[in-house]
Amino acid sequence: MSMSGASPEPFLERWIERQYRDSASAMLRSFSAIDLVKSRPGFGTQVRAAKGSIIASPVLGAYDPDPDYFFHWFRDSAVVIESLRLLYEDGSIGDEAIAHLRDFAAFNLSLNTLDGRRLVDDKSWRGKAAADFVKFLRDDEDLAQAHGEAVVGETRVNPDGTLDISKWARPQHDGPPLRALALLGWVSAHRLDDRLAADLAALITGDLDFTMRHWRTPSYDIWEEERGLHYYTLRVSAAALEQGAAWLRSRNEHEFALACATESAAIRTLLDGYWLEDAQHFRSRVLSSGGRSDKELDIAIILSAIHGSDGAQAHSVHDGRMQSTFAQLEALFDRLYAINRGRPAGQGVAMGRYEGDVYYSGGAYFFSTLGAAEFCFKAARGSPKAQGWIERGDAFLQMVRAYTGAQGELSEQFDQNSGEQTSAKHLAWSYAALISTVAARRAALAAR
């Protein structure tokens, strides 16, 4: 899109409002996509999405070249259900949102009955896999651990409510605190009927209990690549436990509330140790191997500040250390990506995940660039430099605008060299990120 001629601001405003509507519509296609059936002939399975599931992408890829994202990820679905609340609160969607929330709660509660030991006992499913796919099947030892509370650490499940039988990065512990945070937003802001409120309370209580007892246990990072203790997971865990403690106190569950608050404080103390003074940024991970990762400067740190917003100063968008980390990432991707060279005035940096990313185009990512914009808009709230932060956020939106599809399409990535959309098409997380970013922008403008 050309940015020449008249001031781009009126055009940006119109684009934001149109893209917000388009993103809402597109994101909702991932909810309860019961008309979609995914065949995985290599695994000998066929999966029909169940009501209440949220698929990461409704495009039925098979790494041909689109990836197979026909799964209900605990992390992605939490981010999406949070953006559904934002749509509901601004009137973009009516009671349909409550119906989706009710189905989401029922689906997630049903997952508590999953038990991988049944698949260990009945091995008939293994014989359905093609010979060249057997190597991708989970082994019995792995499956035997998938029952009870461990299910929420599974990273993802099939959207028909069955266990994923493929080898994957497990466990992953960001899903429970993210789901707790999203559902706490719903129960804290809205009066819900007794049945729905009880279902959400059951999920929240389980997620808080899991988070409180497992945050010290190494798991895989947000990108499902390295095992260790990760800044992102720890930061959203601290926020969930802190907000959960307030909710529990309102329910007179004071002992549980105290335990959550105590663990939240312990996490924050640990996170202070992730600051690298020489590098002037937070490190994204401490590996279980004891070695140093080359992914320590990671956009996941910035995403943790927006996904884990809880009003605290430390480890928030207002923390000087977090802002320094943000500046380091902005400079990194400005240097790395050809798409950032020679960009028009007023157009911000296309952001990725970390240096050396090799997944598909290796970035840029829509949710990373939108996350940078949302960071700026949230940093504007209460800041004496609010206008500068808003303008900085708008610049990131201009970058997103330049590579959004003609019909508002947002994939997972837009190529760091060509800008062509790549990886998963119609990624629900990308649309959710657009919605939460616009909501943060509106709040920042209103607070000036």
TrEMBL record:
It catalyses: Hydrolysis of terminal (1->4)-linked alpha-D-glucose residues successively from non-reducing ends of the chains with release of beta-D-glucose. SUPFAM superfamilies: Six-hairpin glycosidases. One of its GO terms (biological process) is polysaccharide catabolic process. It is an enzyme of class 3 (hydrolase). Keywords: Carbohydrate metabolism, Glycosidase, Hydrolase, Polysaccharide degradation. It comes from the Bacteria. One of its GO terms (molecular function) is glucan 1,4-alpha-glucosidase activity. Belongs to the glycosyl hydrolase 15 family. This is glucan 1,4-alpha-glucosidase. It comes from Hydrocarboniphaga effusa AP103. The lineage of its organism: Bacteria, Pseudomonadati, Pseudomonadota, Gammaproteobacteria, Nevskiales.
